[in-house]
Amino acid sequence: MNVLWLQSGGCGGCTMSLLCADTPNLMATLADGGVELLWHPSLSERSGDDVVGLLEACIDGRQALDVLCVEGALLRGPKGSGRFHMLAGTGRPMIDWVGALADRARHVVAVGTCAAFGGVTAASFNPTDACGLQYDGDASGGLLGGDFRSASGLPVINIAGCPTHPDWVIETLLALAMDEVTADSLDALGRPRFYADHLVHHGCSRNEFYEFKASAEKPSDLGCMMEHMGCKGTQAHADCNLRPWNGQGSCTNGGYACISCTEPGFEEPGHPFAQTPKIGGIPIGLPTDMPKAWFVALAALSKSATPNRVRTNATADHPVVTPAIRRTGRK
Fold first, then answer.
1. Do 283 and 234 meet the contact criterion of CB atoms below 8 Å apart?
2. Superfamily of domain 198-320
3. Which end of the chain is more exposed for a tag (fewer CB within 10 A), N or C?
4. How far apart are CA 27 and CA 80, in angstroms?
5. Tens of pLDDT, residue by residue, the chain (331 residues)
6. Helix, strand or coil, per DSSP, at residue 308
7. Whose CA is closest to 130, among 162, 99, 86, 84?
């Protein structure tokens, strides 16, 4: 299975993340799975006319194209011309190249939230008219349109994340190579379900503090960051705490709130990232599948039962009170 990778409006962070994959040899891992990289603007030697010739061969059918990966948002401006981003040396907007290649590709993959939904590139007043491949924020459409289907019959596969976890990209490509990706493999926003059916909350090292609603009050505190520090781990679809980055890291493990970077519109939450908006003292961003009244009742009960150890450690930068030592055998 061959893969053509293009970069559009973005920072290149998803490629940087991919290069940090927990494997001694990324290219060998892909090759062992039957994945061949036709071209990548940062990783391939081919350049100039050779690349243009390759793209033209893919478009006219002389070169088979199994997977088109696009990293970065698609820049439609000014006024729909796409001339804010021209493919160097061609006089042709990148959005034209992407559209023509997408029509030929067996699968189309958006790598990162910018390519999936517009992401940071589409934030604020969006002067470049940036959008995702098949979404403009959370609205179906984007560059290719909501009805787009690749030659495989699938919509754009949105490996959302800012940046993506390297394993999400590798496992998606290997699953495509084994012809194991179907419509049922994707969630309602086109994200691979193997990671998007989880929440960042799953496996979070701060879950004991969450259960007792023992909250962090400032950066470096050990407590749950949902109540005061803006954490959206109970709402964000990803397995970051089940699949640690580089074997051990995640945003919450590093002491920073989850900002829900796999979701459309995360870049403009309407409040500072590290603050939790509230109404009547109740956080707006409650767990996705829990009624507000239930959460309020549970929170009140949990706080009344919080052990001193958990309450004290929640607002400290290291464990101050250790777990009690008790016999655990039956009596």
1. no
2. Cytochrome-c3 hydrogenase, C-terminal domain (4.10.480.10)
3. C
4. 37
5. 999 999 999 999 999 999 999 888 999 999 999 999 999 999 999 999 999 999 999 999 999 999 999 999 999 999 999 999 999 989 999 999 999 999 999 999 999 999 999 999 999 999 999 999 999 999 999 999 999 999 999 999 999 999 999 999 999 999 999 999 999 999 999 999 999 999 999 999 999 999 999 999 999 999 999 999 999 999 999 999 999 888 888 999 999 999 999 999 999 999 999 999 988 888 877 787 777 787 888 888 888 899 999 999 999 999 999 999 988 877 6
6. helix
7. 84
- Measured in degrees and rounded to the nearest 5, phi and psi for residue 31 equal -60, -40
Supply the DSSP symbol for 91: T
In degrees, to the nearest 5, what angle opens at C-alpha 266 toward C-alphas 264 and 268? 115
Whole-prediction pTM: 0.94
Is 310 within 8 Å of 208 (Cβ atoms)?
A: yes
Torsion region of 112: left, alpha or beta (phi above 0 gives left; psi -120 to 50 gives alpha): left
How far apart are alpha carbons 35 and 29 in whole angstroms? 9
Contact yes or no for 91/132 (Cβ under 8 A): no
Measured CA to CA, the distance from residue 53 to residue 294 in angstroms comes to 60
CATH 3.40.50.700: does it fit domain 2-193?
A: yes
Intrachain domains 2-193 and 198-320 with the same fold: no
Would you kindly state where each structural domain of the chain is located, as residue ranges?
2-193, 198-320
> In 3D, which of 287, 289, 309 has the Cα closest to residue 299?
287
Question: What six digits make up the tokens of 277?
Answer: 């908006």
State which amino acid sits at residue 320: V
HSE-CB for 65 with a 13 A CA cutoff = 28
Alpha carbon distance 69, 64 (integer Å): 14
- Integer Cα distance of 248 and 242 in angstroms: 10
Of 110, 104, 20, 25, which is closest to residue 63 (Cα–Cα)?
Answer: 104
In sign, the C-alpha dihedral spanning 122, 123, 125, 127 is: negative
Residues 6+ apart with CB under 8 A from 330: none
